[in-house]
Specification:
By secondary structure, this protein is an alpha/beta fold. The chain is about 35% helix and about 25% strand. The strands form four sheets. A six-stranded mixed beta sheet has the order 9-10-11-12-13-14, sandwiched between helices. The chain has a four-stranded mixed beta sheet with strand order 2-1-7-8. Helix 3 packs parallel to helix 5 and helix 9 crosses helix 10. The longest helix is centred in the last third of the chain and has 18 residues. The structure holds adenosine monophosphate.
Amino acid sequence: MGSIALDDVETPKAKVKGALGGSNTFISIAASYFTKPIYMVGVVGEDFPEEHLNLFKKYDIDLEGLQIIPGGKTFRWGGVYLENFIDRDTTFTDLNVFENFNPIIPESKRESKIVLLGNIDPVLQLNVLEQINNPDLVICDTMNLWINIRNNELKEVIKKIDVLIINDSEAKMLANENNVIRAAKMVMDMGPKYLIIKKGEHGAMLFGEDKIFSAPAYPIEELHDPTGAGDTFAGGFAGYLLKSGDISFANMKKAVVYGSTMASFSVEQFSTGGIENLTNEKIEKRYKTFKELSEF
Ligand code: AMP
């Protein structure tokens, strides 16, 4: 579950308005390359273009849990990237239909093995989590906005999950600590069994069971749009874990690399363009490059 959005994005290279976005969108498409069907829980308004619904269907995303609110307006977000393509200013966040969203998971879907709570209001993340019976693994992503305005609720969520995925600046903000390793330890003390800290062009780190794994980032010369890279990472990570049926630390290392692989495709084009029409061969080839990059 997570946001399904229409995004206005500006990078040093180009500008798009009303492009398909949202954490749920990137997560679901990325995960669909590993396991099907992905069960999407979310909400859009009547203004949500039919072509986007068709795109979800193309990736075998089960839309039974997607509410379409008559007369409602879809979540909208705007972001402007600075010259370095890393720092970004949010220009607006219009929750619209997410403001009164009441997620309902039908009985048949309450047995889901892996639950991914994508970036959205922690109150909604908790609501969804309470409706699932005994999942094997709960993964959660969040962002600076929720750390700021829903800190207590977010900490409630973090107590109940297995894997928290955040970026380095969010980890520092959550722990109120400037050193990323110390911040990681402090966030682990908040409850999750595993923690993944994404460091953009510097890769990602996995913490858990008193171990640390560090994965590189794919060297990309032509960045186009970093929007959704984190969500795509989470989708690839969860999708691979479900496909392989193994949630050990050793397998999570591979899942981190699959997540990074998917994220590297995502940033090569605007919106979901980079993760559309991929093949298993392309994914495996890039995964292999990741392996070679860090073998010595
Ligand atoms: P990322 O680049 O991984 O941080 O994700 C960007 C996506 O998150 C965009 O497509 C936005 O629509 C969505 N997004 C931005 N802010 C929020 C928010 N506060 N809650 C949920 N989704 C958001």
